[in-house]
Amino acid sequence: MPGPESQLETRRAAPSSTESVTPRLLSRRTVLQSLLGVGFSLQCVELITSVTADLRRTRPQGGDYFVGAFGDQQGQVITPHDLPLGGPPLIAYPLDPHTQTVRDGSRLNRVLLVRLAPAALAEQTRAVAAEGIVAYSAVCTHTGCDVTGWQHQSQYFVCPCHTSTFDPKDRARVVSGPAPRPLAALPLRLVDGKVTVAGPFSGRVGAQQPRGDRHEETGERSGHRDRRAAAESGSRPEHPGVPSGHQRAAPASRA
Predict the structure, then answer these.
(1) Do 75 and 199 fall into the same domain?
(2) How confident is the model over 167-192, as pLDDT tens digits?
(3) Is there a single domain that holds both residue 40 and residue 117?
(4) Count of CB atoms within 10 A of residue 125's CB?
(5) Could you tell me the residue range of the domain that residue 25 belongs to?
(6) How far apart are CA 21 and CA 146, in angstroms?
(7) Which of 7, 23, 50, 86 has the highest CB neighbour number within 10 Å of its CB?
């Protein structure tokens, strides 16, 4: 029979139930905490992605700047020096200056910026202009094509699809063509030398659509339908073909 000292050594050598279970419990707890952390991180990423997507599709907001949509000025903040007096216009997207988010998630956010002589502007147009700079939706109100044509002599916007013509000096009223209404105006102001949004669009952007909010789908897709129809019929395509004597908005829009 072992003596007292042997029994004491045996008791010291034998691991207690607490000592053997605790590492496993800690291991399981660590794994669970890690899984919860990963799940939370994924939810945060999804939330951030969703918020960013919403910001990109949101219509221009007061305080937004503008950046070039295409070409050499793509992504560059627009100032009056980037807009030659008398045109041609520049196609731009709004920029949220707080989040640095370019609102390029929708074609309906494309804007025509053009600088004209203030004295040439109608009274209502001067009210939404900034030192002769005016801004209008770049999506035609007829079938939703991109308005890329520019008639230098008369200083008119021209939609190449069906030759609708708009006068930017007079709230983009329809001068000729099948467009049913003017291009929506976007009020402007200058802030720290930057062309800045002063308020929302003056009206609906995109083509006329009889069923509620479906007008956005018309603005997003109709340009593609018209290009396809033009190709099948052999008529003038949307972007390259502009009526004789017309220029295109600068820089040129891509489909």
Answers:
(1) yes
(2) 999 999 999 999 999 999 999 999 99
(3) no
(4) 21
(5) 4-55
(6) 70
(7) 86
Are 93 and 78 contacting, i.e. CB atoms less than 8 angstroms apart? no
Distance CA 178, CA 207 (A): 11
Backbone angles phi and psi of 94, in degrees to 5: -70, 155
**Is the domain of 47 the same as that of 64?**
no
Residue 115 and residue 8 share a domain = no
85 DSSP 8-state letter: B
Task: Compute the mean pLDDT over every residue in the chain, rounded to the nearest whole number.
Answer: 79
pLDDT at 141: 97
Long-range contacts, stretch 36-39, CB < 8 angstroms, 24+ apart: none
* Whether residue 221 sits in one domain with residue 179: yes
Q: Would you state the structure tokens that stand for residue 77, as one six-digit string?
A: 């903040």
> Contact, 137 vs 110, CB < 8 A?
yes
Instruction: Among 23, 39, 55, give the residue marking a domain's end.
Output: 55
Claim to verify: residue 41 and residue 167 sit in the same structural domain: no
Residue-wise pLDDT for 46-72, tens only, equals: 545 555 668 899 999 999 999 999 999
Asked whether the beta carbons of 111 and 60 are under 8 A apart, the reply is yes
- Count of domains forming the chain: 2
Q: Which amino acid is at 143?
A: T
CA–CA gap between residue 202 and residue 227 (Å, rounded): 28
Please determine, for residue 12, whether its predicted confidence score (pLDDT) is greater than 60.
Answer: no
Which amino acid does the sequence have at 21? V
* Percent of the chain's residues with pLDDT above 90: 59
Q: Are residues 130 and 152 in the same domain?
A: yes
pLDDT higher than 60, residue 31:
yes
